[in-house]
Amino acid sequence: MSVVATTLDLHTHSTASDGLHAPADLVALAHQARLTTIALTDHDTTNGLAEAQAAGATLGVTVIPGIEINTYLPQGRGEAHVLGYYLDTASPDLQAFLRFLRDARVKRGERMVALLREQGYDITWERVRELAHGTVGRPHVALALMEKGYAESIADAFNRYISPGRPAYVPRFKMAPEDAVRMLRSVRGVPVLAHPMRLYGLEDDLLPRLMEAGLLGLECYYGDYDEPTVEHLLALAEAHGLVATGGTDYHGPGVHPTPLGGRYVPPQAAVQVRELADQLAGEPAPPFTPPVPPPQ
Ligand code: AMP
Ligand code: ZN
Ligand code: FE
Ligand code: FE
């Protein structure tokens, strides 16, 4: 599968969230890697898209507007991440809700830094804020820990301090994946379940629930998934009538193992996502119903 050069990568991050490359630099790297299409899918923000699309117009790289919303499964069963493509970024309701999510991440980041400081680790919130150019995430806390010599790598920092069950972990605002899917459909986005192999109860329970909420795709060609895994997910997508998408989840060097464009994704994935988006554009969108934030 990997012998065929890919031309697209539908899952990437920039400095607008927790990626290490500025949006324009990411697009330049995509161009160097001979990609013709990327989707920028930053966490809880669309703020990197304008810069990425301007760079894409100059270099001849199509930049699909995207986003990634990280959510939680019920009963402590881990996380589910929902990608959204071609969402209406001009929607004031969408932008207000994304601001709410980012503000909640700021409070959560401050709590993680406070926990680390209580445990004697000399990192500061000011430094984490400097490292985060947009959406604040655990990778920024991990970088601050690395800088001070408390971790050897981002993965090491996650494993020691900020993964669930570790001493400085604090969850994000608790949103259910169904709510992320509904929110994306309300702004005519194409919702796709990201890296599905991490998910508990995918086939029996989760996929049917998410499809009822409006899920349209499954990320089958992900990062370093091996061929049997991709085949398994393709069969699942086909059985449920979901579009099969894919990408690397590239964040920059040293974060995840797969380089930009380092995973084969068939060109038809981008065509099918575009067709779904065009179809949604011609239909009335369901009303925007953000999950109610918990009392402060
Ligand atoms: P957050 O959304 O702030 O909880 O941070 C989650 C993000 O951190 C994910 O989207 C990944 O980009 C990154 N991440 C999660 N686990 C690891 C890990 N073990 N090593 C490196 N990056 C990770
Ligand atoms: Zn990330
Ligand atoms: Fe993710
Ligand atoms: Fe991602």
Protein architecture, described:
- This protein is of the alpha/beta class and 296 residues long.
- The protein folds into 2 domains: 8-89 and 177-281, Metal-dependent hydrolases (TIM Barrel), CATH 3.20.20; 100-162, DNA polymerase, domain 1, CATH 1.10.150.650.
- It contains 10 helices and 7 strands.
- Strand 6, helix 9 and strand 7 form a beta-alpha-beta unit.
- Helix 1 packs parallel to helix 2.
- The longest helix is centred in the middle third of the chain and has 27 residues, at 92-118.
- It is globular.
- It binds adenosine monophosphate (AMP), zinc ion and fe (iii) ion (2 copies).
- The site of one fe (iii) ion has 4 residues, from loops.
Unreliable segments of 5+ consecutive residues: none
The named CATH superfamily of the largest domain: Metal-dependent hydrolases
SS field, number of helical segments: 10
| Morphology call | globular
Strands ordered across the widest β-sheet: 1-2-3-4-5-6-7
Bound molecule types: adenosine monophosphate, zinc ion, fe (iii) ion
Q: What's the number of extended β-strand segments?
A: 7
Which structural category do the helix and sheet elements fall into?
alpha/beta
* Terminal residue distance: 50 Å
How much of the residues is beta strand, in percent? 5-15%
Rg, alpha carbons: 18 Å
User: Biggest sheet, in brief?
Assistant: 7 strands, mixed
Helix content percent band: 40-55%
**CATH topology type of the largest domain:** TIM Barrel
Overall domain count? 2
* Topology as a string of helices (H) and strands (E): EHEHEEHHHHHEHEHEH
Rounded average pLDDT: 95
Which CATH first-tier class of the largest domain would you pick? Answer: Alpha Beta
In the CATH hierarchy, the architecture of the largest domain is Alpha-Beta Barrel
